[in-house]
Amino acid sequence: MDFRLEVAIPSDARELASIAISTTQSHGHTSLSLGQRHEAAIKIFETDILTQKEEYIVARNSQSNDAIAYMRLILNSKTWCEHEDILPDWPHQQPVIIQRREIRANIRTLRKKIMSGTGHFYLRNIAVSPQWRGRGVGSALVARAKSLARASVHTLPIYLDSDADVCDFYIKQGFVEVESIFMTINESPSDTKSFHAMVWTRSGSSM
Question: Where in the numbering of this chain does the N-acetyltransferase domain appear (predicted)?
Answer without folding.
Answer: 57-205
